[in-house]
Design brief:
about 230 residues, mainly alpha
Length: about 230
């Protein structure tokens, strides 16, 4: 515990992490409310938030749980695919963390998200002599703590807030469209997204338990990689 605390509480880390908190508090609260509506307890969403520190992945998983038709395999695979980008984040930040222990890297890697990656990379590239591995870990730990707190708080509040369960089924579609929208400036990404959606609809008549989503995503992503490589040549 001292290993973590020693790296967290300092002025530079607090200044860097507070914008992330502003985003995580309302988003995590909404996720917590959603988790209560699909049947999770505060303890269960707390454990989920510890193990799955990924806003989009967690919302998608909760939506699939709420649908009642998704299998465990499809939920795990969909969450895994959605968060594959974090492997790229890890490889990018690895160059700034050479020489750190396995204990450090294990804790640090659990806290990598879009937001913590952006903050840490910006500070590392701006002035690596000031921003070090200790401060980077502090950002990850404090951001993760805020996410857990806001999810649990939202779950508790969900007992008294009236939320239409139709929002649960809508969240999955909205989350995927939101993730896709980041690539609207790339023609190939738009084409692959349309192809993936059409393929998912076609496969839905043959595959149960939401596995058509997983299959369509893998096939479309593979096709996109092949087409992009062919175009570069």
């Amino acid at each position: 515990m001292f290993f973590i605390i020693r790296r967290v509480f300092n002025k530079e880390v607090m200044q860097a992490v507070w914008p992330i908190w502003l985003g995580y508090l309302p988003l995590g609260f909404a996720g917590g409310v959603l988790s209560q509506k699909v049947g999770l307890t505060p303890a269960e969403i707390g454990v989920m938030s510890v193990l799955v520190f990924a806003g989009s992945g967690q919302f998608i998983a909760l939506s699939m749980i709420g649908s009642g038709a998704a299998s465990i395999v499809s939920i795990v695979m969909t969450t895994f695919i959605v968060n594959l980008r974090q492997m790229l984040y890890s490889s990018t930040l690895a160059g700034f963390l050479t020489g750190e222990s396995k204990q450090y890297l294990g804790i640090f890697s659990q806290g990598i998200t879009d937001e913590t990656f952006a903050v840490n990379l910006n500070h590392f590239t701006a002035d690596s002599s000031v921003w070090d591995a200790d401060k980077a870990l502090g950002v990850n730990v404090l951001a993760h703590g805020c996410w857990i707190f806001s999810n649990v708080l939202g779950n508790v509040a969900g007992n008294v807030l009236n939320v239409d369960m139709a929002l649960v089924s809508y969240t999955l579609t909205a989350m995927f469209i939101g993730l896709w929208s980041f690539h609207f400036g790339h023609k190939l990404m738009i084409l692959i997204g349309i192809f993936s959606g059409m393929l998912a609809l076609a496969l839905s008549g043959f595959l149960d338990h939401k596995l058509h989503i997983v299959a369509a995503t893998i096939i479309a992503a593979t096709a996109g990689c092949i087409l992009e490589s062919w175009c570069e040549r």
